Amino acid sequence: MQKISLAQQNSQGFSLVELMVVVAIVGIVSMIAYPSYQGFIKGSNRAAAQADLMSLAAAMERHKAARFSYQGAADAAADTGSPAIFHKHSPSSEPFASRKYELRISQASANTYVIEARPYTSSTQAGDGSLFFYSDGRKAWDQDNNGAIASTEYCWAC
User: Fold this and answer.
1) Cβ neighbours of residue 12 under 8 Å, at least 6 residues apart?
2) CB 3.0 to 4.6 Å from 113: which of 39, 70, 82, 142, for a disulfide?
3) What is the pLDDT of residue 139?
4) pLDDT (tens digit, 9 = 90+) per residue, 47-87?
5) What distance in Å separates the CA atoms of residue 41 and residue 50, rounded to the nearest whole number?
6) pLDDT of the residue at 14
7) Residues sharing a CB contact under 8 Å with residue 86, sequence separation 6 or more, in sequence order
8) pLDDT of residue 58
9) Which residues of the chain have pLDDT under 50?
10) Are the beta carbons of 82 and 103 closer than 8 angstroms?
11) DSSP states of 1-58 as a string?
12) Element (H, E) at 60
């Protein structure tokens, strides 16, 4: 008859303490990783809005080439509002239901324009601040979301 030692008898599973230690470690790691992941998601959505603003800027240039003015590029041939010459949301490659930003023409004259990507309040980008692109090539991000562009916010990677 073969004798089984006590150590061999107890090595057939995990104890409750070992399981609790693993769950605690997974919890701590997820608490650290989740905010970083959320920041990555917001940054990638912001990058998509920046790309869509550049595409809208190209559409504004095509509109000016055809009409010799930036005016009338919005819905109902208006000067401001939702663009009639490009998608009205961003990411434009996704369905409207997945929108994160609203694209708008904020100002338009014969020779200048300002276009904007505003975060939707019901999206993950809420409170992230609007992105702006100016006809002279300036870029701005209202990073503190106060409705005004400070001198330090004239960049998209502030």
Assistant:
1) none
2) 70
3) 97
4) 999 999 999 999 999 999 999 999 999 999 999 999 999 99
5) 14
6) 80
7) 52, 55, 56, 59, 92, 103
8) 96
9) none
10) yes
11) -----HHHHT-SS--HHHHHHHHHHHHHHHHHHHHHHHHHHHHHHHHHHHHHHHHHHH
12) helix 16-67
Instruction: List the domains of the chain with CATH numbers.
Output: 16-153 (3.30.700)
- Token digits of residue 111: 């020779």
Helix, coil or strand: residue 95: coil
pTM over 0.70: yes
Cα separation of 145 and 130, whole Å? Answer: 7
CB 116 within 8 A of CB 50: no
Tokens 């400070």 — which residue? Answer: 150
Task: Please tell me whether the peptide bond between 95 and the residue prior to it is cis, using omega within 30 degrees of 0.
Answer: no
Q: Are 130 and 119 in contact (CB under 8 A)?
A: yes
Mapped onto helix, strand or coil, the DSSP state of residue 124 is coil
d(CA 34, CA 40): 10
State both tokens at 55. Answer: 């595409």
Number of residues in the chain = 158
What whole-number distance in Å separates Cα of residue 55 and Cα of residue 85?
A: 10
Q: Round to whole Å and give the CA distance between 158 and 143.
A: 8
